[in-house]
């Protein structure tokens, strides 16, 4: 009953708004209510006539600078304000509304309708109710009008609004706006909003900002800053349920699965005493305590309705697939291995390409000529209906690239997708190793297999670091030119495992140069840990001459962040140094005396 009324009310209000905008005068709207309004009120003319004045009274008018022009409700013995000619007591006063009419309804609908300069002026007037701004922003975002949603929600944070008084609107608006900035690539705006909220916002909003900041640091791989942000959020909002799964995320990024389970159990015991907590939230925290990786993976898979079914089906498919057929390999005159797709593999890939509609960028190590996730529901369903497509390396390449682009930064997604894909890929890799010879990126269609391996390494790096390192080492042994840039990743993983001699050996095997900052700094750290300080200093001098930003950015506790784009940062830039700090500063901190030694060399080299 109530649902039907809400649909009727929205239909009536939308029609009335269209009539009002024709000339923004009350008689025009009342004429519409009598001629067409009853259609939206279950055929009741009385309800339409009673509803019309209430709708008019809350409608902002452009001609009045976005003020309303309300009518005074008549007394019972006066003529009715619907202009029926009857007394109010015998007309609209006797009509009972099925439920209350939200007083921000017409502002919300107007914000959805206005365009360009009119919308800008309406927002600048600061007359729109906060709830109208929030709902209009949500509706615009859900309908794909992200630019409009961003513009509307930004007005909630403009000027000197009292955020404390807008708690019900400002926190969800903040969450949505941060997501919009992320989706639309406005990283500076996102950072500026988070910083402003942390500096000026009330406690509840600062806590939300700190939680977001923690997740942003996790996305970028800066685990030290992520933990610091989490601890600040914990001090600000100690009883926030979201802290339970954010801490689980931090611990899983740090590789502490057991600790993540223990801490989730702690949070469940603590929060279960709070009777106001949402039962669904408490159940999710209990699932975290049982298996944090599986709980977070399931949450990610079901986060979008259109993808949840196809992703679940893909997960089941990957865990039931058999070993793939053998590849057709040949040896070149120089002894190098070459792979060319068979006619069957080419045919299987054509089926995939027709479903996906987005091609691989052959000129890049990773990437597509478009966004494969725009057509994901159709290619996921098609792949699950045609599992033989996975027999084609080009299909494996496209699938692993797509999954790595979406889930590669989430360590809890490894078992869901990347582990079974790596097992399947391992049969082909073993065939290459058994055949003997080098495997160059530039020969035949070798890049397809190497690119697939790189995508798997990226997908497993955060959740299964040792497996990722072993796969990277196997690829390095085949592709000695290191076309994929895997040497740096292998060195990082070996340093994290405390295998300093091996890290040093790997760093000395590849080509040297200013473009390999991570390799060179890995060599410096390995030499320092091995107490070869003079050798470490000699390499450090070379590093400093090619990138003078590395020492101040790595040594300072709170250096100014550098913006990282989608592409790899240019060699010798501040962005390159900042990226290295995010990835590896925790290892310098964990190495006794390393940062102090580095600071002394900084003063000597400056």
Number of helices: 29
Low-pLDDT windows of residues? none
Number of domains: 4
Measured as a percent range, the helix fraction is: 55-70%
Q: How many beta-strand runs?
A: 2
The biggest beta sheet is recorded as: 2 strands, antiparallel
> Over all CA atoms, what is the radius of gyration?
30 Å
Describe the structure.
This is Zinc chelation protein SecC. InterPro entries: SEC_C_motif, TPR-like_helical_dom_sf. Pfam families: SEC-C. With 606 residues, this protein is an all-alpha fold. It folds into four domains: 1-101, no CATH class; 118-291, Serine Threonine Protein Phosphatase 5, Tetratricopeptide repeat (Alpha Horseshoe), CATH 1.25.40; 304-484, no CATH class; 518-605, no CATH class. Helices cover 64% and strands 1% of the residues. It has 29 helices and two strands. The protein has helices at 2-23, 26-35, 45-57, 105-113, 116-124, 130-142, 146-154, 167-184, 187-200, 203-220, 223-236, 242-253, 257-271, 279-290, 292-301, 305-318, 343-356, 376-385, 393-407, 414-435, 446-461, 465-478, 486-496, 500-509, 517-529, 533-546, 550-555, 574-590, 594-605; strands at 329-331, 337-339. The protein has a two-stranded antiparallel sheet with strand order 1-2. A hairpin with a 5-residue loop joins strand 1 (329-331) and strand 2. Helix 23 (486-496) runs antiparallel to helix 24. The chain starts with a helix and ends with a helix. The model has no long low-confidence stretch (mean pLDDT 88).
């Amino acid at each position: 009953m109530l649902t039907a009324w809400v649909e009727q009310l929205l239909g009536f209000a939308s029609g009335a708004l269209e009539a009002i905008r024709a000339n923004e005068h009350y008689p025009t709207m009342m004429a519409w209510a009598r001629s067409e309004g009853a259609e939206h009120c279950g055929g009741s003319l009385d309800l339409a006539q009673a509803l019309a004045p209430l709708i008019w009274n809350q409608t902002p008018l452009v001609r009045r600078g976005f003020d309303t022009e309300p009518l005074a409700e008549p007394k019972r013995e006066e003529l009715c304000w619907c202009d029926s000619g009857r007394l109010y007591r015998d007309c609209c006063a006797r009509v009972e509304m099925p439920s209350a009419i939200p007083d921000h309804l017409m502002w919300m609908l107007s914000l959805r309708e206005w365009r360009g300069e009119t919308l800008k002026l309406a927002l600048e007037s600061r007359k729109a109710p906060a709830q109208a701004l929030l709902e209009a922003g949500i509706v615009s975002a859900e309908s794909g009008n992200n630019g409009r949603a961003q513009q509307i929600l930004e007005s909630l944070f403009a000027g000197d609004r009292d955020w404390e008084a807008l708690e019900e609107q400002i926190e969800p608006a903040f969450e949505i706006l941060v997501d919009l900035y992320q989706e639309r690539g406005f990283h500076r705006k996102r950072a500026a909003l988070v910083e402003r909220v942390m500096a000026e916002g009330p406690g509840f909003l600062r806590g939300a900002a700190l939680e977001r900041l923690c997740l942003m640091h996790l996305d970028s791989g800066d685990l030290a800053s992520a933990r610091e942000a989490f601890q600040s959020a914990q001090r600000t909002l100690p009883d926030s349920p979201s802290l339970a799964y954010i801490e689980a995320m931090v611990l899983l990024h740090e590789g502490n699965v057991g600790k993540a389970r223990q801490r989730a159990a702690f949070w469940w015991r603590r929060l279960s005493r709070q009777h106001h907590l949402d039962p669904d939230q408490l159940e999710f925290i209990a699932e975290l305590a049982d298996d944090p990786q599986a709980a977070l993976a399931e949450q990610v898979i079901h986060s979008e309705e259109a993808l949840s079914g196809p992703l679940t089906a893909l997960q089941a498919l990957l865990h039931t697939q058999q070993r793939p057929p053998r590849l057709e390999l040949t040896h070149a005159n120089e002894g190098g291995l070459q792979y060319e797709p068979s006619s069957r593999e080419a045919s299987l890939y054509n089926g995939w390409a027709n479903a996906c509609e987005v091609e691989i960028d052959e000129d890049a190590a990773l990437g597509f000529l478009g966004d494969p996730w725009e057509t994901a529901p159709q290619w996921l369903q098609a792949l699950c209906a045609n599992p033989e497509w996975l027999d084609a390396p080009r299909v494996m390449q496209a699938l692993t690239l797509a999954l790595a682009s979406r889930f590669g930064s989430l360590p809890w997604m490894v078992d869901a997708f990347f582990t079974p894909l790596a097992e399947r890929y391992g049969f082909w890799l073993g065939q290459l190793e058994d055949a003997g010879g080098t495997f160059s990126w530039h020969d035949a269609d070798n890049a397809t297999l190497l690119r697939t391996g790189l995508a798997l390494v990226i997908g497993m790096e955060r959740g299964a670091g040792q497996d990722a390192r072993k796969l990277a080492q196997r690829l390095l042994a085949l592709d000695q030119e290191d076309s994929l840039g895997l040497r740096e990743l292998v060195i990082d993983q070996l340093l994290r495992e405390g295998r300093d001699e091996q890290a040093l050996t790997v760093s000395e095997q590849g080509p040297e140069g200013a473009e390999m900052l991570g390799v060179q700094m890995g060599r410096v750290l390995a030499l320092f840990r091995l107490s070869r300080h003079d050798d470490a200093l000699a390499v450090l001098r070379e590093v400093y001459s090619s990138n003078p930003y590395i020492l101040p950015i790595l040594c300072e506790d709170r250096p100014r962040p550098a913006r990282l784009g989608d592409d790899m940062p240019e060699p010798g830039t501040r962005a390159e140094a900042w990226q290295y700090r995010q990835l590896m500063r925790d290892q310098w901190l964990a190495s006794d005396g390393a940062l102090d030694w580095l600071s002394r060399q900084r003063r000597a080299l400056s």
